[in-house]
Amino acid sequence: MSVQEGTLLHTPSKEAIEQTNLSDYMNWLTKQYGLSFANYHELHNWSVTEHEAFWESLWHYFEVNPEATYQHVMDSSKGFMHTTWFQGANVNYTEYIFRNMNPDHVAVKAYGEKRHKEEIVWGELYARVSAVANGLKALGVERGDRVVSYMPNIPEAMVAMLATASIGAIWSSCSPDFGARTVVDRFIQIEPKVIFAVDGYRYNGKKYDRLDVVKEIKTSIPSLEHVIVVPVFQDALPAEFNLWSTFLSDYRDGSPIPYESVGFDDPLWILYSSGTTGPPKAIVQGHGGIILEHMKSMVLHKDLKSEDVMFWYTSTGWMMWNMVVSGLMMNGTVVLYDGSPAYPDANVTFKLIEEAGITSYGTSAPFIMACRANGMQPKEIADLSTLKAFSSTGATLPPEGSQWVYEAVHDKVWLNSVSGGTDICSAIVGGIPTQPVYAGEIQGRVLGVDVDAWDEEGNSLVDEVGELVIKKPTPSMPLYFWNDPNNERYYESYFNEYKGVWRHGDLIKFKDDGRCQIYGRSDSTINRGGVRMGSSEIYRAVESLEAIKDSLIVDISHPTREPYMPLFVVLEDGFVLSEELKTEIITSIRQNVSPRHVPNEIYVIEEVPRTLNGKKVEVPVKKLLMGVEYEQAVNEGSLQNPHTFNYFKQFHRQDA
Q1: pLDDT of residue 274
Q2: Lowest mean pLDDT across 9-23, 434-448, 528-542
Q3: N or C terminus: fewer CB in 10 A for the chain?
């Protein structure tokens, strides 16, 4: 029998609570500052009311740089989005990762569909990072230059990222399943000097040659001076490409990593989050903010220790890959997997738990629901006894998904659902190891994040769905958007709705004890498997086809249903939506955007609803299809063709 939303599934024992990093931190606060908290809720309240004291405590607790001095913890005198942190203190992300390494302990375990298992100890990881860092410097890469990657989730990508950060250069990454145009739209903005790439990749048992895409990227981005390729399929590469193995061996001389000491708010990497119009937004995040935020996340909210083995299924185009790299901060072990989570069957990553000794496993909510729908019982095909934590993100995990984890995976595991965003490269609400787990719910607000649900007037809501807002800055929020004069796009993205308060773009509902649910995006951003694209990128791929006159796409999430993304098309005269045309549409999206953003269904409509100034109306359609009453979802006075909603009202009734 299925559990209901809010059904209690797991309560940590008193002994388990006492052994958490969170309890250790609370005890440390008592010893160092005389602070005492009866429970997590009191601790969280302190972390957002005494905001500076909280973040300063993490600086000392995590020993970010004991030798450094700083002028202030934070300075918001110029406004929320111009907040600076720990001004005067120097750090380096890569140096922090290697600070306490045990050279003989395994740092990375790598697996793939056709890849031989590889184990890399910390000493070897250090040597590879040193070689690539010195190689980049030999190519003329300097502090502030951009280095990019078009590689899957393989050790070479991790090594290249750590090497880039070590010398103060700025990293950015796209997954090789992204089409050339999607990659160029992102990288051309930031003018990279070097790209690391693969000539192809394997997924779901198939080979995908990407050498032509790499060539197109090279010719389309004038700033690219060097291409370094990890060969997957080719025996010989074009002369203009450098071979990874040669590059590595040429600069592997036993020298130390040439760390560049940078300011706390110096750029570390660039992630991408698309709006509905214009090029993808290039989000710049800093060394110190990521160190503090990711240590808080890994240590206090994921409860990772140096003996843990962490895995999260991800691609290099999703912020979760960056989080996996940061899993090294605990000087334990991270597990990489390159390939499909469903090939040769959906048990492949569960078998990794036994083979790699994984203690902390992460995946997406849609994958969990697919496993449940297929009647899978991972505990029957693998020894999952090492597993302590099971994490879920990418969408809301329905109650049935929570129940499946406890029945089919591990009945004693700590299930923690997480929701955050590329924008801060971390969680906003998520796991709390000292708290109970309830079906279909996220455990609560994470420390240091003053998050709330607001209505349109800025009133706080309890037990009602509202806009997710963050009322105070956090260190990993964007330093700025690349090439954004006067921070105009930055402001419009987060601060245009509620002046001086961050509007995240998600819908959320809190209970009075902090437990919550995410109801998907409140805007028209398409979020599939954690990879966000602007709808405009999909429209460009679809409307380039001869048969398509116009189109509309919406991404629909609901706590108790599978994510659903329908595409509505207006056909040119003389065309019908045949199976051949559907295949052509899907192929165009796969090749020009990504396979993740292929719609669930395609429907023909007569006309796309538009505003009075001609913009496509996406959010009202989305709200209507999510179950919002028509009068609340649609303002007919803002439309040039309100009659178009007759179709969507009927569509919703059929869908319901």
Answers
A1: 59
A2: 528-542
A3: N
106-260 maps to CATH 3.40.228.10: no
Q: Do domains 8-97+266-521 and 106-260 have the same CATH topology?
A: yes
The domains of the chain are located at 8-97+266-521, 106-260, 526-655
Compute the average pLDDT of residues 560-577.
Answer: 88
H or E element that contains 125: helix 122-138
Strand-pair category, 242-243 with 226-230 = parallel
Given a cut of 70, whether residue 1 has pLDDT beyond it is no
In 3D, which of 139, 137, 169, 176 has the Cα closest to residue 154?
A: 176
562 three-state secondary structure: strand
Per-residue pLDDT, 365: 84
Q: Which fold would CATH assign to domain 8-97+266-521?
A: Rossmann fold (3.40.50)
Residue 146's DSSP bridge partners are 170
Among 210, 172, 178, smallest CA distance to 192 is for: 172
Pairwise CA distance, residues 302 & 83, whole Å: 27
Which of 227, 266, 229, 264 has the alpha carbon at shortest distance from 245?
A: 229
Prediction pTM value: 0.86
- pLDDT per position as a tens digit, 96-117: 999 999 999 999 999 999 878 9
Q: What is residue 235's DSSP assignment?
A: S
Rounded to an integer, what distance in angstroms lies between the CA atom of residue 494 and that of residue 404?
A: 36
The candidate with the shortest Cα–Cα distance to 327, out of 280, 294, 351, 350, is 294
CATH class of 526-655: alpha beta
Least Cα distance to 270 among 254, 280, 283 occurs for: 283
Q: Which two tokens stand for residue 46?
A: 């302190």
pLDDT of residue 42: 98
